[in-house]
Predict the 3D structure of the following.
Amino acid sequence: MSLPTTLGEALALARGRVPVSEARLLLREASGERAATIVGFPERQLGEAAALRFVDWLTRREAGEPVAYLLGEREFYGRVFSVSPAVLIPRPDTELLVEQALLHLPEGSPRVLDLGTGSGAIAITIALEAPHADVSAVDISAAALDVARSNAARLGTSVRWLEGAWCAPVQGEVFDLIASNPPYVAEEDPHLAQGDVRFEPPGALASGPDGLNDIRTITAEARGCLKPGGWLLFEHGYDQGDAVRTLLAAAGFIDCATLKDLGGNDRVSFGRWPV
Ligand code: GLN
């Protein structure tokens, strides 16, 4: 592939290989030029380092690598989070989980726990949006916690990071609210072999034959880690709302409900540990 020497040549090189919007974004990040320049000044020179970076990203994107991993970042809830292949890429759907967590926080200085924090997007956003909250976050992956820690430092907040399996690192503690976006895709779901998810950590996506293994485990464990009246909130698959509410109710949770994401799909379910 010959190296493009102008913005216009770079976009021409990408034509038909990746969507135009992605080509523009990659070129913007590779060149440091503004979006309007990318579109309006095709004759603008592109330096060799920027051209090399763009061609590398273009080739890798064409082979399927997610844009967020190429750029090393993704926006979530209005803030930019660093991401690496050690963590799931934050999704807009998960903003509903954060929004609901914030709505269910009691007054005072509530203790909040995020289970399976990955990039830290949920824990850090709650800590920044509710500065009165005392936020802890667990992940089984040390590499994920490194990403989360650097995000917290860069975004200027503090979260207590704990390594381990679900509630194991917080044995003996109780929280006002537990939020989790656990793996919830069924193991055999063909969607795991398509698109961006092929490059994401499998342990963050798949959870047993019906996708509910981890939600079952967390529901059972969370009962011992919630204050009376505390809330447990899950993100889950579009077809799992009924199943998750049933699981929560069977475990003794009350006031169980499911909410839809912006796409109109069941996405978040929650229940309250009785007083
Ligand atoms: N929503 C993601 C997907 O369908 C799955 C995220 C998760 O398992 N927590 O790709």
